[in-house]
Design goal:
The chain is of the alpha+beta class and about 140 residues long. Helices cover about 35% and strands about 45% of the residues. It has four helices and six strands, in the order ααββαββββα.
């Protein structure tokens, strides 16, 4: 079961990386999927997003706010219904032109081969500094 869960998350990132976010959402997210990314209010894409439509809305909000220069997955490992992904991102904030580099961790809960929950843990200090124009 653990390998099946890791495979589902790996497929999710492969599709996302190939520009197939809609396919990833349609085939790998459970109907009651929830994405949780708690961020300071100055960062416009924090919050909770539900279902495939919510996931695609989240991606749209990200792309409206930042230009992602690189997004790399370093490792994926699983334990039971949890799959953890560790990676790195380099992005520029469109409103300020400021750039940030950060490590991130995404924790997934996978049930019956479908992703039910995704929690993002980001370096909010680096992100916030880039979103604030007066620094």
């Amino acid at each position: 079961m653990r390998e099946q869960n890791v495979t589902a998350v790996r497929s999710f990132f492969e599709l996302f990386g190939a520009g197939k976010a809609e396919e990833a959402a349609a085939t790998l997210l459970a109907d009651d999927f929830e994405l949780i990314n708690l961020l300071p209010e100055e960062i416009p894409f924090g919050g909770r997003y539900r279902g495939a439509a919510g996931f695609l809305q989240y991606l749209g909000e990200i792309m409206a706010a930042i230009t992602m220069e690189s997004f790399e997955v370093d490792e994926i490992f699983g334990d039971g219904d949890r799959v953890t992904v560790v990676g790195r991102e380099v992005s520029s904030v469109q409103a300020t032109g400021r750039r940030y580099e950060m490590d991130w961790v995404h924790v997934f809960r996978v049930v019956d081969g479908l992703i039910q929950e995704m929690r993002e843990y980001n370096d909010t200090a680096r992100m916030l500094a880039a979103f604030q124009a007066d620094r």
